[in-house]
Specification:
By secondary structure, the protein is α/β, with parallel strands linked by helices. It is about 40% helix and about 15% strand. It has seven helices and six strands. The protein has a six-stranded parallel beta sheet, with helices on both faces. The model has no long low-confidence stretch (mean pLDDT about 95).
């Protein structure tokens, strides 16, 4: 069984985090979930869901202030971490190692232990500081996977666009998302 940490921050795109959670559970992953306070606000603004709806799907839920949680230590082995969506504040904190909360600390652990860290940054357009931080994290081993629209695979709805982004993310963990259509496959 894969053990993956999923963090959802306050950037726009709460539904992306929810759909990621559903996809990880469909893969029978052990999911350790962290919802930032900003994520809880965004969930209320963007969806009809509640934080409890997200938490009910996770195997373990950690408060972002709990720096003693097992996922804050390299001795607690995971397959890695996904931050979806990832705010620019969180991305910047990870880039400079400012471990002020559990999301940033768990991401830092993934980097130092050479575990997979996939960030789905949500901002448009990217400013110079955003791009510098993304470059730093890429050089440090993180995967920067902005949730960018696709046009080649019949993704003609928001749901299909989300499936594409989730599929691309899960590929980095060796997991297949059934609704993902890679290049060259018939979208029908």
């Amino acid at each position: 069984m894969r053990r993956i940490t999923l963090a959802i921050t306050g950037a726009s795109g709460a539904l992306l985090g929810y759909r990621m959670l559903l996809a990880l559970k469909a893969q029978a992953c052990e999911v350790h979930l962290i919802l930032s306070e900003g994520a809880k606000t965004t969930i209320a603004c963007e969806t009809d869901l509640t934080p409890a709806d997200f938490e009910a799907l996770a195997d373990r839920v950690w408060d972002e202030t709990d720096l003693a949680a097992p996922i804050s230590s390299g001795s607690f082995v995971t397959d890695g971490m996904i931050i979806a969506p990832c705010s620019m504040k969180t991305l910047a904190a990870i880039a400079v190692g400012y471990d002020e909360n559990l999301i940033v600390r768990a991401a830092d652990v993934c980097l130092k232990e050479k575990r997979r860290l996939v960030l789905l940054p949500r901002e448009m357009p990217f400013g110079r500081s955003h791009l510098r931080n993304m470059l730093t994290l890429s050089e440090d081993g993180a995967v920067i996977l902005p949730p960018v629209l696709t046009f080649y695979n019949g993704a003609d709805s928001v749901e299909k666009q989300l499936d594409h982004i989730i599929g691309k993310t899960l590929l980095h963990f060796g997991l297949a998302h059934g609704a993902f259509r890679p290049w060259g496959e018939d979208p029908s």
